Amino acid sequence: PFCPTCIRDKFDKLYPQIKEIHARVRKKFKLPETIPNHNSGKICRLCVNKCRIKEGLFGYCGIRKNAGGKVVGPDRNWAYLDWYHDPLPTNCVADWVCKGSKDYGFKNLAVFYEGCTFNCLFCQNWHYRDKKTKTTAQELFRAADSVTGCVCFFGGDPTPFALHSLEVAKQISEKRRKIRICWETNGSVSPKLMRLWAEYALRSNGCIKIDFKTFSEELNIALCGSSNNNT
């Protein structure tokens, strides 16, 4: 084990060992052991990792893949996720600032995405790595019924499925009564997509909850296997 001060002050020296620890953990789940950086790879710009993915292989998230020279995977129409309803008030981390937490009689539509752009060694929801439940945007839209007060996209992390969550947000905001739309994320998504998320959250009186692991990039890489620059 390394203390925070050692990681910050001696990062270059310790990085090979940190990298090996993450690789060993990820290998158990058949995920790419490091952030792909193949010279001939196709760049995925969805998140901070900016994976250069070799033909036929997956990005760091294990969700998006280079197939025929194109980065493919979940899109606006489908994603890997599990969903359920929670009666309000629920255990939302923003309940102390959100008026929706007092919407008694309504419920939260919780959308748990089965994928992530980080590799947190302390992840409490690590079990998502063993699941791949394909779900359409239309199914989620139908789940946002007349007594749904809010929807929260979390996981895992919504980043590998950013377009899918946007499509669901779009359908809900256009065709349903006022439902608060929220994201809970590690903040690794591209700034362009984050701005789109923020627009839906603000318009619906929802919010975006950023899960800061640490403010230090060195510590973030040590704990999560990835940079926190976008966060």
TrEMBL record:
SUPFAM superfamilies to which the protein is assigned, alphabetical: Radical SAM enzymes
Keyword Metal-binding: yes
Domain (Radical SAM core) ranges: 111-220
Keyword Protein transport: no
CDD domains: Radical_SAM
Cofactor(s) required, per the database record: [4Fe-4S] cluster
Pfam families, alphabetized: Radical_SAM
UniProt keyword list: 4Fe-4S, Iron, Iron-sulfur, Metal-binding, S-adenosyl-L-methionine
Coiled-coil regions listed: none
Regions that span the bilayer: none
Entry's Gene Ontology molecular function annotations: 4 iron, 4 sulfur cluster binding; catalytic activity; metal ion binding
InterPro entries listed in its UniProt record: Aldolase_TIM (IPR013785), Organic_radical-activating (IPR034457), rSAM (IPR007197), rSAM_sf (IPR058240)
UniProt-recorded name of the protein: Radical SAM core domain-containing protein
Species, as recorded: marine sediment metagenome
